[in-house]
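Course exercise 7: structure representation. Students receive a sequence record and must write out the corresponding structure in token form. The form below is the worked example handed out in class, using TIR domain-containing protein (1078 residues). Read each field label carefully; the graders check that inputs and outputs are placed in the correct fields and that the protein name is recorded exactly as given.

STUDENT ID: A-19
EXERCISE PROTEIN: TIR domain-containing protein
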Amino acid sequence: MASSSSSDQGLTSTPSSHFKHDVFLSFRGHTRLRFTDTLYHALINKRIETFRDSNKLRIGEDVDGALMEAIERSRMSILILSATYPTSRWCLDELVKIMECSDNGRKRPVLPIFYFVEPSDVKYQNNEYGKAMTDHENKGRYNQRLEAWKSALFAVGNKSGLCVNKNIPWGEAISKIVEQVTKIVPPLPLYIHRPLGCDSELKDVKSSLLKIDSSNATCLMLGIHGDGDISQFVAELYNNIRPHFTTASFLSNISEKTNESGGGLEDLQETLLLEMGEDVKTKFGSTRKGSAEIKQRLGQKRVLLVLDDVDRIQQLESLAGREDWFGGGSRIIITTKNEGVLDEHMLDNGFEVRKYCFRGNQAAEEDDVDEGDVVGFTDNSCLVIKHLCDNKINIISIIGMGGLGKTTLAQKIFHHKEVKNLFPFRGWSRVSKDYDQREVWRGLLDSLKLSTSSYQNSIEDLKKSVKNYLKGKKYLIVLDDIWEPDVWDNLKAAFPNESKGSKILITSRNEEVANRTSSKTCRLALLDESQSWELFCKKVFSAKEYCPSDLEPHGRSIVESCGGLPLAIVAIAGVVAKKKRTEREWQGVKEYIHWHLTRDMTKVMDVLKLSYDNLSEELKPCFQSLGVYPEDFKIPARELIQLWMAEGFIRPQENGLPNAPEPEDVGEEYLQELVDRNMVHVAKQRSDGGVKKCQIHDLFRDLCILLSKANKFFEVCTGSNIHTLSNPQRLSLLCRETASISSLETNQSSTRSLFFFAGKDYSNDVLKKFQSAQVLHFGKQASFQRRLLCDLEAMIFLKYLRTERTFSVARAHESIWSLSNLELIDVRGWTITCIPNEFWKLKQLRHVYLLPYGVRLPTDENGTTMWNLQTLCTVNLDATTVCLFRDGRFPNLKKLGLRLDPKIENPCSWYELLLSFHHLINLRTLKLDCCTSDLLIDAKMFPSDLAKITLQVFGKMDCSSMKALGQLPNLQVLKLLNGTLSDPLDCATVEFPKLQFLQMCLVEVQSWTLEKGAMPRLGHLNIVDCYELRELPEQLWSLTTLSEVRVIDPSNELATSLKHAKVNDNCDLTISYRRKRK
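STUDENT ANSWER:
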């Protein structure tokens, strides 16, 4: 029930955004695995966000800060007052804090559970409570707290609560507790994915039209009409005013749920009463009887009712017919696009009726359109789309200088709904300055969702694959950032011209490219003064903010210095947005860039450098390190953060520092800061919304290289400069020819990081020149002789080892485990089967990535604990692994990949083996490869904080296993890959309470049902190659959080049903095909 809504929930004067939990559980340890655990899961199953501490929190002299914060941010507290409760100073300190925050229960509810004790014993400290207090007093260590403890015990003992004893069964007691909590804790607010920012409108409607704070007992009906996002506006309004009413209901999408003959209205009447807490045991039989029930049950209650998207008078007559249906002070809110419905219902219904026209933020007409990125290019966008629709035109070019937004404009056109409908097959590939034809074809095949698994394919083979796939299809291909005309000559033969209406869209800085292709050209110009100011303001201020008048002259002067170049404007806006909104701060920025921008790229660099200069000292090396990657390289975010750690840009947490964040978490904050400053953009998001891959603009990369020339931070070796290297701190090798690397005569003793992104067959003595290196990275495009890796054992300072090429290695595999400074080992390409015992000596290890086919962990008789290890992928699940888990050898493990191989362990024993996961209390991500064997899952297998599960290559998973997954309280991401589910896939109410992302790929299941209340937070659904699935559940489209549904290669039945799906406006449904349809 916890929510980030901005409304006052009625428990305290604190806004509900302050609260994080519904309930705080205070208990003594011996009840944890029995009564308290049962109560905890009963509350969770009712979608009541409940906090209970873990064993590890209670290790200090005082109550942990996390516990204190949890008490402060909980709406109410439940105290399990057992006989041993007062023997714990932590419990007593918790009690004092609880009573203090709640003002002894007057501001926030406190529910005492007298667990086999008498309330009088607690109140007057008799019997066990008296003995405990006497014991504390005799010890003399906590005398200063004794009075506070006694006062809190007296206060809580004086409160009415529930007794649990031998005469009251647990089940009955827990049911009563849950029932009482449900009444006390406010109802769940509607989930708002992204607020509209209409605070002033909400305030006006609340106070002026609805008169919420008025003592007037008149029933009032408010009709809201208009063209904006009315439904979301009213959802925010509903959350804001809900606490002022006895009960409430929000009925959404009414026009879709009813028909002209009145069908569906009886169901809506039933839903209305159920949401308002009324029992409905039988069908009404008619809407007339349903109306009578509403009047009878709600006639004396002050209710809030929202009827969303009404389009017929019959709907209003059946759901809110007259004023006397509801108690005094009730408010009925109606949203409609047909103002005439309101006028018709105003006649003779007894309500005081008011109307409001909402003109809030208009819904974007294009997919994924951020107009802040393409300000001033509306005409260009329309022109290009017009050319794409013209059957007489085959090629279109977008031409303009670097930083003008050519790629951004092309992306928006590529994702435009009209373009998606026009071209069933669309592909994109980046060409760039460092043109590599092989990479162009691979990028295009990846974009078209075709396999590029073999890196040995010749250029001609790749080109042929593209041509054969496109033959006979109507396609759009984007070739982004072509620098030279000759490049087009090399590429054009792969694109068949069969008069199908297919198009090629090119972006380039070079006018000659457009001439060579004989294309229709769209030339981008610099932004004018008005457009530049609009873009700047969109990046600095929120949607409803305006630039203060005293700052506008300084802001316009800053924008003028950018000369209309969007990249420079966005970069400087990122600087200004982080500054205080004072004349002094903005004047400082203005003075720094007092020149006027021309096409001189040196001055562009000066503008971009301001973004760099305004970074903190911690962020500067993080940003500069992005320059070691090849141009247009999509950098994996986790890999980048791990690199920053190995480089020392992120320092490990101080020992003993309470609540210090992990370096990985700090790295995510650093990366997000660079994204927020518009210096890095997100190339791909994770399923949980985080950054999966990122990129920098080539001009920002040029800036990194320019800065590094001065401080020798890094150098990029492209071959031509091999003999001029100046012993840099970091060396990035992008050269194709590698022979000259081995002949280097210059001193490389200062090189601490070595990156191989290209090159073939590096000789075996290359690493001998870099034995002081701490970072060694071999990319997919860099090949080397196997014996080269044998020199690894001499690189004793190595912290970071990542190789992406596949090799069968032996000696190299043995040597790496002797490198005691290693923090990261990523050798997923090495065909190894077991890890030697030296593994236990690598005490600094944080992340280990091994062959995905499973590796055996070594035994250890010394009881070594790997305190720092957070990632372990992929190892075999066997008896040895289970013993290590149970013995607590990996106490801080957060990500685990396991292979359940029936050749190693009998599947009959898997259930018991999987129970060992429960000991990994910090585990957040789990990936299981089941090797086509059946899988049986129980919720008690998993730690409660597990957030992401991937199950792949599983045989059959029964209904109880899916139910178990649905009971996991914090599961946010679930991926089911290549397996069979029992029919039907039935998701019941309250199951998957926090699931946000669901993917099913190659899953055999025919039907799927989704009850109301299941998956209430689902935002993204991917269905891929599920050939037997016939339809998606109708309830799915009622989820207000659902924003994206992607279906690839559906069955004919599923494809047909999706044509008739009632998809909400805020949800994007995409259906695509990679195989030929029968």
